[in-house]
Specification:
The structure is a homodimer of 283-residue chains. The first copy, chain A, is an all-alpha fold. Helix content of chain A is 49%, strand content 3%. The first copy, chain A, has helices spanning 4-18, 30-37, 43-47, 58-89, 117-130, 134-146, 153-160, 185-196, 203-229, 265-269; strands at residues 22-23, 26-27, 149-150, 178-179. Chains A and B meet through helix 2, helix 3, helix 5, helix 6 and helix 8 of A and helix 2, helix 3, helix 5, helix 6 and helix 8 of B.
Chain lengths: 283, 283
């Protein structure tokens, strides 16, 4: 399946992985240095996976996430908050990251309202920085998002005190907070707008998302820092009662025909989605 | 706001953008060559945005998307289908792309069922390859996904004839098709499973997603090829009646409190989501 060239590059990648020093739980070492020694076409293999990491200043990431939202939206913002501080703190391959690629995630990808772009951008950087542990760290971020009141107290304080990095604020008011219960842009924005009375095209809503973007980037930095120190604890999070039957499994008849997680199934499926259907064991 | 170093790099990026030759509607030129001449830490600036593009073999992209799904899931698959062919066709900065980063999007990001990972991966590569036109191209892909029967006839034929690049198939059966009406993994998978009777953890469902992943990558290549030739036509697509009031706008009272697009609002919101609420003008 893999061509000979692919196999050679794979072997080279494995070699570079083996020659990487493990520091603080995340590989930090020869990868960045090696990159400069190899031809441009071999850069991916040279930098390997994960890319090197060092502890980030969480509050700087929060402020950078906010200002990059102003420049390119939520996915560009959250990834930029992490990326710009990684470029200064670690350097190496991070300086070569094509940040403009992250512009597509705004408004849940081209305005379709799917996943909140701040999560999309943060999860990309988490995966690049943490390697095979990415699954548990991104899962933790997704779960945290749905249960957190945005914008955070820190975010509202930075705005009120003009401590963010923007020169002209969309608004510097302390904004009301909501908990979305969902990682979707559509639900997150709709929940905030409906509960606060601001329109989705208002400067207040845009500023709410800018602050949220910084908050998500900062949480990602917190999780990555804990992972790097070896102190990250990921745990169980609340799941809907529905998930006791409806999960990703191999038995269709018992309800294993979905992919998804969350607490708010009934928001879309209604309070009694089974209706008149006879449930297994209920006869 | 930007540091002096940031400003210098921004100026350098602008210079490299200006020195890029426009070929076939997408910039192709000095960027890839320059990358090898500069230090590793300046790679992002050297490669600029968009990255160079040349017409791709759509059917090869479809087959590569399928095989990369087997290796890393839907986001890794769709991006890998495009990326691997770009690496061979164009080379330059594409060879340095950190493909492993794309693993996070599987199952709608860590199994949360948000955006279909094949869309997430394809939109990332579209954005990197098309520059400022990314919005209309990704929007076209998102709209097409929701109205298309997956897996495609081509995909089912490749499986039946063992023309894919995998050695051992999850299944080589011709699979039934469904139209999801949504870019969400949760809806896409649930719709297919419910209509076909296969569980979400079944090899048939995994194979369906592998074929869909190739199909989405192939469509992205089709769109990028058309854009590169200057023949891309993007148009209006069907929107829910609800969207005549509920869109991203500045007037909260008239219903402009959402972000999102689509045809199937009532799937989640019910047939008469207004219920007893008096509508404007209905008194």
């Amino acid at each position: 399946m893999a061509t000979n060239r692919e196999k050679t590059l794979l072997q080279r990648r494995d070699f570079l992985k083996r020659s990487t020093l493990a520091v603080g739980g995340i590989g930090v070492g020869a990868a960045g240095v090696s990159a400069a020694l190899l031809a441009a076409e071999d850069q991916a293999e040279a930098t390997g996976w994960p890319w090197p990491y060092a502890e980030l200043d969480v509050e700087l990431v929060r402020k950078r996430g906010h200002v990059y939202y102003y420049e390119g939206g939520c996915m560009y913002g959250a990834s930029g908050g992490l990326l710009s501080v990684l470029q200064e703190t670690v350097g190496g391959p991070w300086a070569g990251f094509p940040h403009d690629m992250m512009r597509y995630g705004g408004g849940g990808i081209a305005g379709w309202g799917t996943v909140c772009g701040s999560l999309n951008g943060a999860c990309a950087i988490i995966t690049l920085a943490s390697g095979k542990a990415y699954g548990k760290i991104t899962n933790e971020l997704m779960a945290w998002y749905g249960t957190t009141a945005f914008p955070s107290e820190a975010a509202n304080r930075y705005a009120a005190n003009h401590e963010y990095l923007v020169e002209k604020y969309k608004t510097d008011a302390v904004l009301p907070t909501t908990i979305s219960g969902s990682p979707l842009c559509h639900v997150s924005v709709n929940t905030w707008c409906r509960e606060t009375g601001f329109a989705s095209g208002s400067p207040q809503r845009a500023e709410r998302c800018a602050r949220l973007t910084g908050d998500v980037a900062a949480k990602a930095a917190e999780l990555l820092n804990a992972f790097a120190r070896g102190t990250l604890v990921t745990g169980e999070f609340e799941q809907s009662e529905c998930s006791s039957c409806h999960f990703m499994g191999e038995n269709f008849e018992s309800g294993q025909f979905i992919i998804g997680k969350g607490t708010n199934c009934t928001d879309c499926h209604g309070a009694d989605p089974h209706g008149e259907i006879e449930l297994p064991g209920s006869a």
